[in-house]
Design goal:
mainly alpha; Arc Repressor Mutant, subunit A; 2 domains; 7 helices; about 65% helix; elongated
Length: about 180
């Protein structure tokens, strides 16, 4: 077995669930998260890159997950602009009021624009600093701060006042699952 195959095997075996949870937070769906991780693994390990360290490989795959997610969103936006030319929906979405049930964090995250959602996930799930998020997204630190402020305001509008951002219990986001 080649060195990269061993790294891939160990990465999927040991960190696979954590990668899927990370991707599911971005996509809002476990199955879509699994697909996103699969796409990222193919991108990372089929290009002949010399990934011989599991820790470095995981960081590289996480970056690929984020890039693939953002690229896919842009692609869907372009498609939605011309989709009406090809087909029409049979049903029109109604404007019924939502029931009085509690809105959970995952549902609230799905209301955020992809860049805002990515910033929130990178900050509170990956526990990255503002400069690290800026490097990952290739944006200025001020832009990251603005995204986080906008996201916090939108989440507070849905969920009510949030506790201090530095003390947010990440288990709310991961539905009580222990972080790997």
């Amino acid at each position: 077995m080649a060195a990269w195959e061993q790294v891939l095997d160990e990465l999927v075996r040991v960190r696979g669930r954590a990668l899927v949870r990370y991707a599911a937070l971005l996509t809002g769906d476990e199955r879509a998260g699994e697909d996103l991780v699969q796409d990222a693994l193919v991108r990372c390990f089929s290009g002949g890159r010399p990934l011989r360290d599991t820790v470095a490989a995981e960081a590289y795959v996480r970056k690929a997950v984020l890039s693939t997610f953002l690229d896919g969103h842009r692609r869907r936006l372009r498609w939605s602009a011309v989709r009406h030319l090809v087909a029409r929906d049979d049903e029109v979405a109604g404007h019924e009021a939502t029931s009085g049930t509690r809105v959970d964090v995952r549902a609230a995250l799905m209301t955020l624009r992809p860049r805002l959602r990515a910033c929130v996930v990178l900050r509170y799930y990956d526990d990255l600093t503002v400069p690290e998020i800026g490097r990952r997204l290739d944006v200025a630190e001020g832009t990251v701060k603005r995204y986080l402020a906008d996201a916090t305001a939108q989440l507070e509008a849905l969920l009510g006042p949030l506790p201090d951002a530095d003390t947010v219990d990440i288990e709310l986001v991961t539905n009580g699952k222990e972080r790997s």
